Amino acid sequence: MLLEEDQISVITFQVGGEEFVIDLLNVKEIIQTGQIRRLPRSYDFIEGIYNYRGNIIHIINLKKKLNLGEMNLYNKSKQLDMTLEDDKKFIIIVNIKNMDIGFYVDKIVNISNILVDDIVGLSPVIQTNLSNIDYINGIVKFEDKPRIFIDLHRILSDAERVTIEKDQVTF
């Protein structure tokens, strides 16, 4: 019999053609993208600022932050068949050290429960070849394909977080 401690609830989302997983408990809210205002002279991965429930928050573009680059693996004729739902983008709101930050993602795939045993650590080869992988909790073994399990609380460096925190004080 499975115990509740043996499972965690996760959100699978898509960014730049890749799917990632985060712990549902780390998410404050998921909203549809609204009007994001560009912020001059900020980090290149900051998409801009957003009015979230009366507070101005920074929006992080995960495609840029994760250095995924542009994906052009689709057929141009498929682009014509896109529905309005394909145009919807989402912001995952996370509270990091008493500061709300939004993470811009392309698509929310699903919310599911996984077994803790299905999370595999990174091999030593991968750990030594990737710089700053502190935000990767491991790889989740789903039946269809593995997905990287990331922690949005740790994706920003201390310097990046402090800079964003200073910016938010001025708003």
Can you offer a commentary on this structure?
The chain is of the alpha+beta class. The chain has one domain (4-170): OB fold (Dihydrolipoamide Acetyltransferase, E2P). Helix content is 16%, strand content 39%. It contains 4 helices and 11 strands; from the N terminus they run βββββααββββαββα. The chain has helices spanning 62-65, 76-80, 124-129, 158-170; strands at 7-15, 18-23, 29-32, 46-52, 55-61, 90-95, 100-105, 107-115, 119-120, 136-141, 146-150. The strands form 2 sheets. The chain has a 6-stranded mixed beta sheet with strand order 8-1-2-11-10-9, with no helix packed on it. A 5-stranded mixed beta sheet has the order 3-6-7-5-4. A hairpin with a 4-residue loop joins strand 10 and strand 11 (146-150). It is globular. The termini are far apart. 20% of the residues are buried.
